[in-house]
Amino acid sequence: MSNSGEQLIRVYSGEAGMRLDTLVASRMDSLSRSRASELIQSGKIRVAGSTKKPGYRVAEGDEILIAAPTPKAPVFEPEPIDIDILYEDEHLVVVNKQAGLVVHPAPGHFSGTLVNALLYHCPDLKGVGDALRPGIVHRLDRDTSGVLLVAKNDIAHRHLSQQFKSRSVRKTYLGMVYGIPPADSGRICLPVGRDPVDRKKMSTKSIRGREAETIWRVMERFEGMTLLEVDLKTGRTHQIRVHFAAIGHPIIGDTVYGARAWKNVHGRPEFFKKPTDIFRVSRHLLHAHRLTFIHPISRRPLVMESPIPEDMQTLIEALRCRV
Questions:
Q1: Higher per-residue pLDDT: 292 or 4
Q2: pLDDT of residue 266 exceeding 60
Q3: Vertex 305: Cα angle to 275 and 231 (nearest 5)
Q4: Which of 159, 184, 219, 268 has a 20 to 30 Å separation from 107 between CA atoms?
Q5: What superfamily in CATH does domain 79-166 come from?
Q6: Is residue 278 over pLDDT 80?
Q7: Would you say domain 172-287+317-322 falls under CATH 3.10.20.540?
């Protein structure tokens, strides 16, 4: 860090040649490429003290000073949104999150989120942990369904957050993937980080990828598809989706990571172009099935499980009928 509100980043060798706006967006989660471009043009982002154009090609060792203003934290309001509670006591609540529900407010989703629903259900939740993510100790993608754990006080938040940090929480998912894996089980150990070109995506080819480990086993094989049980040893953003796309078995319905992987590995992009037409699914079929952790106060182990959601079950039954 430099002066208050300023951040200094240096260009690594693998980043040399990237556009300045693309590089900044890839390194700053809070900035989109368009916002980075605006700041560059206004002189808020400089290279070695000089103003550049957004399309300037960075060189190894370039020092980029970013003076982006800190945005004001938005005010989140309680909303009477229905949520499925699997378990609740005075310290925590376990939710069976439905697909399509955003976990916490963010640009473009300041209302209608799980946090808005939780603030209505648990009025004292505000101020627990991160002000922007009250009570949240982990997250699920918008279209991923299943078990999500929320702390209701600071003591619970600290203990549960530490369990996730130390990787002592067991996170088990169910996922439907394209193709038939050659083995009954396996392990994927590929680093995951921000995509060097598209900051909204993650990639196993990231310049600054972090270690990521995914363990899987086959639950049931179908014609051209497989139901997998997946254990996450690490919790990188989009890890399961990125890992299975990387090995050529993308999650069914994943239009972000699936289409390219299917095309690259199988040479049949038309097979994946319209998953809603072919399989009548409207989201990626990934479900947080089970969460095993230690209660932050009683210290007893808890196992929370969510049943297979209707859309996944419907597809499974339809595939069984085809066998």
A1: 292
A2: no
A3: 65
A4: 159
A5: Pseudouridine synthase (3.30.2350.10)
A6: no
A7: no
The ranges of the chain annotated as CATH 3.30.2350.10 are 79-166, 172-287+317-322
Question: Which of 22-31, 75-84, 225-234, 269-278 is predicted least confidently?
Answer: 269-278
Calculate mean pLDDT across residues 254-260: 81
Q: Give the active site residue among 21, 84, 130, 141.
A: 141
Residues of the chain with CATH 3.10.290.10: 7-66
Question: Candidates 2.60.40.10, 3.20.20.70, 3.30.450.20, 3.10.290.10; correct CATH number of 7-66?
Answer: 3.10.290.10
Indicate if the pLDDT at residue 202 is higher than 70.
yes
- Whether 264 has a pLDDT exceeding 60, the answer reads no
pLDDT band at 33 (very low <50, low <70, confident <90, very high): confident
